[in-house]
Amino acid sequence: MKTTIRPLENRWYPYALLAPAFLVLVVVSLVPFLFAMFLSFYEINFGRIGGFAGFSNYSRLMDNERTWNSLWVATKFILIAFPLQFILGLGGALLLNKRVWGRSMILPLLFIPTMMAPIVVGLVWKVMFAGSWGLLSYNIVERFDFLQGTSVFSSPDYALLALALVDVWQWTPFMMLAFFAGLQALPVSPYLAAAVDGATPMQMFFRLTLPLMAPLMVVIGMLRFIDAFKVFDTIYILTAGGPGTSTEVPSLLAYRMSFEQWRIGESAAFAVLVWIGFFVLCSLFYHTAKKKLNVF
Amino acid sequence: MNQSTSQSLVTTKGPIKRISKQEKVSVFWTLLLIVIACIVLFPVLWVGSFMFRPDAAMFARPTEWLFDPTMVHFQYVIENGFIGYLGTSFALASISTLLVVVLGTPAAYAFARFNLRFRDDLFLFVLATRMAPPICMVIPFYMIFSKIGLIDTYVGLTLAYLTFNLSFYIWVMSSFCKDLPLALEEVAILEGHNRFAVFLRVVLPLLRSSIVATGMLCFIFAWNEFMFAFMLGGQEVKTLPVAVPELITTQGVRWGPLAIVGTLSLVPVMLAVFLLQKHIVRGLTMGAVKG
Q: What is the pLDDT of residue B168?
C-alpha cells in the first residue's frame, strides 16, 4: 500500500518545499524586473508614468555619452583592481599554506576588510586620504609630491586609481582565503611523487599547483569580476562619481540618473540591460563552476 | 640494476627530508604573515583611534600619533539618536534573517535532494537574483513602494532584503544539504516515517550548525547593506550605514562620530569572522569552494 503512495508523494513533495520560497522570490525579484521592463517603455516624468514611448528610452540611453563612459570607467577599474587582487591573493594564499604559527588567529583578522560594511570601508579610506591632513595624504602623497593643492579623490587623474586600490584592500583577503581553501584541498600524492622525482619547489608550483588550481581560479575570478562590476557604496562615499564623470561606474550613473535627475525611464532601460548582461554572466559562472569544480 | 636502486635511494632521501622540514612551523613566514596582517588592519585601527581623538589632534599637520583621549564624540553619538539607528539595524537584520531561514531551508533541501523539473533553470534564477546589481532592483522597488506606501517601512525593507539574502541562503544551504549522508534519511523512510517528519526530525538537526553559519552571514549582509536602506528607507527606518554619509555635511565632516559609528558596525562582523572562519569562504564563493 505504502509503496504505491510514496512515488506519488514524491511528485509534489519537493515542489511543496520550494513553493513558499519561490513565491517570495517571484514577488521580490521577477516582479521588479518585469516592472522595470514595463517602465523602460514609458515616458516617466517625476515618478508619474506617462505615454508609451517605444524604444526611445533605450535609444536616448545609447546616445548618451555617459553610458559608454561608465562602461569604460568600470573596465578601467576592473583592469587595475582585478590583476592586483589575483596576484596578491595567490601570494597570500601560498604564504598561508606554509606551516605558520597561529594561523587560526590571523586568518579571521584578514577577513575583516571583506566582511565589513563597504560604506565603512569607504569611510576608512576617506580618513586616510582626507584633504591635507589625512595620514597618507600628508605623509606620503604630499611629502613625495604626487599631487599638489588637491586630494587624491578629487583629482581626475588619480581618483579612479585610488578607488581601485581601495577595492584591492577590500577584496584581496577574499581571493586569498578562497585560494587558500583551494590549496588545502589539493591532493598530496602528486607532490610526494614529484618530490621523489626530485622536482624543485618552482617546478612543483608551475607544473602541479597552478594546473591543479586552474579551475578554481577561473571560477573565483569570474565571481570577483561579476562583483566588481556592481561596486557602489565605496565609490558613492569617496567620490560620488566625480570629479566630473571620471569615476562614474554604471551603478553610480544609474543612481545619478534616477535619483538626482529623475530620468526614471532611461534608468529603467539601463537597469534592464544591465540585468540581462548579469544574467548571461551568471549562467556562464554557473555552468563553468558546475563543469570545472563539480559543485552545485 | 644495483647501481640504479642505490642511486634512487640517495635521491629519495633528499626530498623526503625537505618535506619533513616544511612540516615544521616556520618563524620567518609567521612573522611575515603577522606583519602583513598588521599593515592590512592598520587603517581600521587608525580610524578607530578617532573615536577618542580631539578634533585638533585629527587635523594636525604633521600627524600627531599621541593625544589626550576625549569622550565628546561619544556624547554627540548618544545625543543624536545613533543608538536608535543601531537598534533599527539590528531589528531589520534579525527579522529578515529569521524569515530567510524559515523560507529558505526547505527550498534548499528540495534543490539538494530531489530531481526537480527545470532544476537548472530554477537554480539559475535564484543565482541571478543574488547577483543582480542592487541599483537595478532599487529603481523598480522605489516606484512600486511609493505607489503602495512601503517606502520607509520595515515591511518594505525586509522585502527588499529578501532578494539578496533568500537567494543567497537557498544557494549556499543547498550545498550544505548535499554534504549530508543520504543513508539516515533512507533508514527513516524505510521505517515508515513520512517525508516531512524526516525533514523535521532527521535533516534539520543535522543542518543546525550550517543554518546558524549561513544565517549569520545573511545577518551580516543585511547589517552592512547600504543602497536599499538609503533609497527605500531613511527617515523612520534608518540603519547605521545610512547614518554614515549623513555625518559628512556641507559644514564639514564629523570624523569622531563617524569613527564610532564605523566601529559599532564592525562588532557583529568581528564576531562572525571568528566564529565562521571556514563557512565564510564557502558563503562568499556561493558554495563553489568548500572552505
A: 93
